[in-house]
Amino acid sequence: MDLLDSILNSMDAPPATNEQQKTLIKKQREMMERMQNKQKEELLRFRKYVEERMGRFSKDDRTYLEFQPLDKVHRSVIHEIAENGGFIAMSFGREDVDRHSVVYKKEHAPSEDEVTARRNGDGWNEDIAKEYAERRRERLETEQSNKRTVAPLAAEGAAEAADVKPTTNYKAKYAHLIGESAALQAARKTETNQSYGFVPSKNKKDLRSIEQTLADIQAKKRLKLQQQQEALAVETEQPQTEHCTEQQ
């Protein structure tokens, strides 16, 4: 114990926290708490603001409600309130640049053109709607025109392929090797063999139901078990018969 006491006594004591450090730590903690409380209060005010805007939106004739660019936390508040109110909320734009939320009434869900325009950063109004409708019409006309152009070419190619005839008579070419009759026999039109063995292939398809198949399997098992039992009984009776014969 004396050696241990001497070692402990020779070690430096931990540095004591002075009053100035304690005060600094306390101020930092209080500042963090004030910032957190301020953020909570700001989010509560923003939630109330969004609820009021959506309340007015639900009663007027507007088809959508657009918010200013916001961060992810504020957009999540908008989406939550919209979902609870029975609206459709979507976000458009680049993150940390101009990403914003747009709320729609369910009976006025955005069209494909509107979603595409907003994703492209073009916004949405009557002029843009007409522009995108014209683009879509031109695209459909181009696709239909391409189809009308490709179809005759494909038909022409198929007709040319059908008109192609071999330039060589293979029956005459190999007649000196396998004979005229064999060449004719080899060149005859081949057909699928409809029967394999003694049963036609069309009859090999199992037409039984699942229940009937299971019943047949169980019957086969019972028959096999019965045959095994009969064979075992015969083997058991044979030694007894031989033993009785020896005794006689």
Q: Could you walk me through the main structural features you see in this protein, from its secondary elements to its overall organization?
A:
Among the domains are: 29-110, R3H-like domain (Ribosomal Protein S8, Chain: A, domain 1, 2-Layer Sandwich); 115-153. A 3-stranded antiparallel sheet has the order 1-3-2, covered by helices on one side. By secondary structure, the chain is mostly helical. Helices cover 65% and strands 8% of the residues. The protein is built from 9 helices and 5 strands; from the N terminus they run ααβαββαααααββα. The model has no long low-confidence stretch (mean pLDDT 80). The chain has helices at residues 2-10, 19-59, 72-84, 112-119, 126-163, 170-173, 175-178, 180-186, 210-247; strands at residues 64-66, 87-92, 100-105, 195-196, 199-200.
Structure, briefly:
This protein has nine helices and five strands. It is mostly helical.
